[in-house]
Write a structure and sequence with these properties.
Blueprint (H helix, E strand, L loop, with lengths): L1 E5 L6 H15 L7 E5 L1 E5 L5 E4 L14 E5 L3 E5 L16
Parallel strand pairs: 1-2
Antiparallel strand pairs: 1-6, 3-4, 3-5
The structure holds zinc ion.
The site of zinc ion has 8 residues, from loops.
Length: 97
């Protein structure tokens, strides 16, 4: 399972990983793997239309100094990919004698 986490969010990747491990143990998905991708924060300036990325949550346009900035990427948690493997169930369907 692959999850993209926007860097703007307060969701700490370690917390997500901890929850995933807890669920997978409880539900018996022992071999499930979680891949976390941190998405950088990208913004768009409403004054000069510049697009730029942010390393810190300081919403000021580096080109014109405006604070009228819109976040266009890096927000939210997205499930980007999920892979499932079906185990061989032939033993479960044996009819016996
Ligand atoms: Zn600007």
């Amino acid at each position: 399972m692959e999850v993209t986490v926007g860097r703007l969010d307060a969701v700490v990747p370690e917390t997500l990983r901890f929850l995933f491990d807890a669920i997978k143990t409880e539900r018996g998905f022992g071999s499930a793997a979680l891949s976390l991708i941190e998405e950088p924060v990208e913004c768009w300036c409403r004054i000069c239309s510049a697009e730029f990325s942010l390393d810190e949550p300081v919403f000021i346009c580096p080109y014109c100094g405006s604070t009228r900035v819109t976040v266009i990427k890096g927000r939210g948690v997205t499930l980007t990919r999920i892979e499932a493997e079906v185990e061989d169930e032939s033993t479960q369907y044996q009819t016996g004698d």
